[in-house]
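Suppose you are handed a protein chain with no further information: no name, no annotation, nothing but its sequence. What can you learn? This example shows the usual starting point.
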Amino acid sequence: MSFLVYGRVTHQVPPDLAVELTDAYLTYVKKWKAAGAVDQVWNYVACLGGCMIVNLASPDELDQMLMEHPFVPYMEVAVEPLVDAEASSERFKDMFRAMMAA
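A reasonable first move is to predict its three-dimensional structure. Written in structure tokens, the prediction is:
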């Protein structure tokens, strides 16, 4: 399954942990990219937060992955499941055709 995961640090990160947590974050990103679970990662401009495209077998695997994120105790996180655009658009058209035929 593909997911769009986005988050923003909304709680004060203790200054004495900031560098250590950032190093841990960079290691986390490299680990999950190497495992093939993360396609892309972006950080937002001038703030602590960003988004990533994740491919995992289940929401449980995603939950496990996110629990390892070093900033997760300080973040608000949102997840959007993703589907193929062409297949989803065809289902959307079929739904409206069925509604119009009723």
